[in-house]
């Protein structure tokens, strides 16, 4: 007697385990892409903030260079001192008929630091939206007709703290929440330039 032999065909298709492993690998890859997209958004915002800060820095440096009188330049330093910087947390000075060019420049810079150029209506009130996150501006008299102009703002992630010689906004950007990674000025960003005024 011959035993009947069955012809078995080679298996075709995928097993359930193979499909599950493939789905797992695909989902891990998509999660990695989503995380990278979030990080790219943060980097893009940091870059945009730095560009905005550089524009604001150049704006004040140009205003000071155009108004070269030594008493006027000292007035810039008085109006945007380290302990009373222009920008966030400050009411920008109102202009009057007797306002000087320095007063107008400081007000314009203060409003620009607060983002007054772009406003959003919230509950019938206009809220500034176009400025730096926590933007502050300082002018320091260094002597010998030199002035240090600095713009500081809140970064999104902690990095190395700026050098101690750039004191504008120092200690203002540390996280107040428990477990915040923004400590020791690691979220403070600054850009600065020196305005030199030659004797004419």
TrEMBL record:
Q: Where are the transmembrane segments?
A: 12-34
Question: What are the entry keywords?
Answer: Membrane, Transmembrane, Transmembrane helix
Q: Does the keyword Transmembrane helix apply?
A: yes
Q: Which InterPro entries match?
A: N_methyl_site, Pilus_4_PilV
Query: NCBIfam families per the record?
Result: IV_pilin_GFxxxE, type_IV_pilV
Protein name, entry field? Type IV pilus modification protein PilV
User: What organism does the record attribute this protein to?
Assistant: Ideonella livida
Q: What is the lineage of its organism?
A: Bacteria, Pseudomonadati, Pseudomonadota, Betaproteobacteria, Burkholderiales
């Amino acid at each position: 007697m011959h035993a009947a032999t069955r012809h078995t065909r080679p298996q075709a298709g995928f097993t359930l385990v193979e499909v599950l492993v493939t789905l797992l690998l695909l989902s891990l890859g998509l999660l990695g892409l989503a995380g990278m997209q979030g990080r790219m958004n943060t980097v893009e915002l940091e870059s945009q903030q730095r560009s905005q800060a550089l524009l604001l820095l150049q704006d004040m440096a140009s205003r000071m260079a155009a108004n070269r009188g030594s008493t006027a330049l000292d007035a810039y330093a008085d109006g945007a001192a380290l302990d009373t910087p222009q920008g966030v947390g400050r009411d920008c000075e109102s202009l009057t008929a007797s306002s000087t060019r320095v007063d107008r420049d400081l007000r314009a810079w203060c409003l620009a630091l607060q983002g007054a150029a772009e406003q959003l209506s919230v509950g019938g009130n206009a809220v500034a939206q176009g400025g730096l996150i926590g933007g502050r501006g300082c002018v320091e008299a260094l002597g010998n007709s030199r002035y240090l102009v600095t713009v500081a703002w809140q970064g999104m992630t902690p990095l190395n703290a700026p050098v101690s010689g750039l004191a504008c906004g120092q200690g203002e950007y540390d996280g107040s929440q428990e477990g915040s990674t923004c400590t020791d000025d690691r979220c403070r960003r600054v850009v600065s330039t020196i305005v030199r005024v030659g004797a004419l």
